[in-house]
């Protein structure tokens, strides 16, 4: 149980660091990384929708396909 809680903590901490990096560095500099974040940033620049919502929208079909 302790090991699962520790894994969950590190997953959340890593996601938080990645989200801060995207919102503070990548998005303002208009850099498009690879993967779901890059696709979400490109769509965001074209449509002015939120990058976070678009990242979620891009990742949901990938998660369903992986399942």
What does this structure look like?
The structure is a single chain. With about 70 residues, the protein is an all-alpha fold. It is about 80% helix and about 0% strand. It is built from three helices and no strands. It starts with a helix and ends with a helix.
Keywords:
67 residues; mainly alpha; 81% helix
Structural class: mainly alpha
Task: Determine the fraction of residues in helical runs and give it as a percent range.
Answer: over 70%
Shape, per Cα inertia axes: flat
- Strand/helix succession: HHH
Radius of gyration: 14 Å
Quaternary structure annotation: single chain
Q: Please, what is the average pLDDT?
A: 91
Task: Give the CA-CA distance, first to last residue.
Answer: 24 Å
Let me know the number of strands. Answer: 0
Poorly predicted tracts of residues:
none
How many helices? 3
Q: What is the percentage of strand-forming residues? A: under 5%
Note the main sheet: none
């Amino acid at each position: 149980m302790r090991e699962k809680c520790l894994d969950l903590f590190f997953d959340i901490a890593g996601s938080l660091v990645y989200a801060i990096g995207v919102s503070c560095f990548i998005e303002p500099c208009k850099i498009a990384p690879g993967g779901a974040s890059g696709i979400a940033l490109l769509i965001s620049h074209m449509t002015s929708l939120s990058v976070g919502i678009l990242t979620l929208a891009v990742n949901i079909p990938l998660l369903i396909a992986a399942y």
